[in-house]
Amino acid sequence: MADLLSIIVPCYNEEQTIITFYEEILKIKSQLSPMEIEFLFINDGSSDQTLQVLKDLEKKDPDQVKYLSFSRNFGKEAALYAGLEYSTGNFITVMDVDLQDPPSLLPKMYKLILTKEYDCIGTRRVTRNGEPKIRSFFAKKFYRIINKISDVNIVDGARDYRLMTRQMVDAILELKEYNRFSKGLFSWVGFETYYLEYENIEREQGNSSWSFWQLFVYSLDGIVAFSEFPLVLSAFIGLISFVVSIIALIFFFIRAAVFGDPTTGWPSMVCIILALGGLQLFCLGIVGQYLGKTFLETKKRPIYILKNKSESLTKKE
Ligand code: UDP
Ligand code: MG
């Protein structure tokens, strides 16, 4: 049987970009032969005409185009998970619809994965042209920090865009956690990954749907999901300040015994109280982050809820 490539595409308010994306993929399809392709679009609760565009596209090309549609916006991570669950190909790729993940890399990726040396061909941007400077700066810092303090290795500039074997996707589907941070999950499951490098491409149409604040919260999620270091840090800070305060206490006690105790120094006292109080709140906050995540996990809520889907689609058991 010929190879089948499932192309998983999360779409959130992307009515303008879907058709261009579809056409671009068809252009390179012949370079992938004899591999067949299937598109799996996930409408992540868009408020524009995305769903209608997908339905029309399915009518036009029912053999290759399938879609899933969520009951509301669940986020890109949930959309990826749904796509992986419903994919049937023996090779699977995940791509953004805005053509920032160049389809022209696919034939090369396919060739590499056929060598059987790798289970996954990832892609990595070596430049961040067209991205706000400050955003690149924090992105770089984020990768440095998370690689230092967690045991997953996340390559700087690595995109979600990757070509994977069925075996690796099945492994990822085993991870049913609610707080999903794909870059970490892809790395956590192991397997051999090769990173293709390319220059950044600016978004085709529309705007990036991530604000700086969302990205910031997303990176904190990534850290909390893959590292216990902040917990260790808070315990460490707590211990240090405790030891310091004991030493200071002994020092002040002896000083008072030897030199007497004039009632001065209350401003410094207030500072110390504030500092300790702040520290405790900080550490509580860290613990709270983890507790919050645990709380969400224990509820065992579904990662996404479907409202519509192509009739031909069934979940792989
Ligand atoms: N996306 C999604 N749900 C969301 C936000 C984004 O499915 O809540 C999709 C979006 O349609 C696109 C991909 O995720 O296909 C990447 O989004 P975007 O281009 O806005 O992000 P960036 O390239 O800036 O990381
Ligand atoms: Mg984009």
Number of domains: 2
The CATH topology of the largest domain is Spore Coat Polysaccharide Biosynthesis Protein SpsA, Chain A
Tell me the radius of gyration.
25 Å
Read across the widest sheet, the strand sequence of neighbours is 7-5-6-4-1-2-3-8
How does the major sheet shape up? 8 strands, mixed
- Given the structure, what is the number of helices? 10
Report the count of strand segments.
8
Helix content: 40-55%
Mean pLDDT: 85
Find the structural class using helix and strand composition: alpha/beta
What string, H for helix and E for strand, traces the elements in order?
EHEHEHEHEHEHHEHHHE
So, the CATH homologous superfamily of the largest domain?
A: Spore Coat Polysaccharide Biosynthesis Protein SpsA, Chain A
User: What is the CATH class designation of the largest domain?
Assistant: Alpha Beta
Q: Give the cofactors and ligands.
A: uridine-5'-diphosphate, magnesium ion
Shape: elongated
Low-confidence stretches: none
The CATH architecture of the largest domain would be Alpha-Beta Complex
- The rounded distance between the terminal residues' Cα atoms is 21 Å
- Strand-residue fraction? 15-25%
